[in-house]
Amino acid sequence: MKINYTARKVTLKDNFKERVEKKLKKYDRVFSEDAEAMVTVTVYKNRQTVEITIKDNGMIYRVENTRPEMNEALDIDIDKLGRQIRKNKTKLEKRIRPAALDEYPDEAAAEIDEEENQLQEEVSYEVLRKKNVSLKPMSVDEAILRMNMVNHKFFMFLNADTDKVSVVYIRDNGDYGMLESELDD
User: Fold this and answer.
1) Measuring CA to CA, which residue among 52, 73, 54 is closest to residue 63?
2) In order of start, what are the domains of the chain with their CATH numbers?
3) Which of 36, 111, 118, 160 is most exposed, with minimal Cβ within 10 Å?
4) Which of 58-67, 74-83, 111-120 has the highest mean pLDDT?
5) pTM of the predicted model, to two decimals?
6) Whole-angstrom distance, CA of residue 103 vs CA of residue 68
7) Dihedral over alpha carbons 144, 150, 153, 158 (to 10 degrees)
8) Are 32 and 57 in contact (CB under 8 A)?
């Protein structure tokens, strides 16, 4: 797995990078050699955010956590990534190497099994409601304004500048984000 680092308002030390590589190494058997991990560390006043995004075979796995110490945030991210993989195990088996998930470390499996059983009972991927959306060309600012007016967390629109279907959304920290459609080759 190839690991890229991005540091915002901080200089990453080699021991942190080694720690990341050691923690992600346990997922080598799950992901292919072409997998690419992006580790982004951002330091705010008294909090540090570690975000890990792994792209492999068209699948994207993303975890993010904010803590006073970046090592603590990294540990929580690694645990979340493991839960994400186990939660979607049946779907992932079709896309990753055979039996990769069977070799998942036993110590992590013992801790997560009870939680996984509860999640399987609670989580349903059944679509309960379908809504048609008329895409009206508008600017990003207008889309954010409309999203706020209807008190939603996201809003889909046709971007007047790019002629692409886009989605604006509000992030956990209160900032705004935007997704823009693109055909995958």
Assistant:
1) 52
2) 2-122 (3.30.160.100), 137-180 (3.30.505.50)
3) 118
4) 74-83
5) 0.59
6) 33
7) -50
8) yes
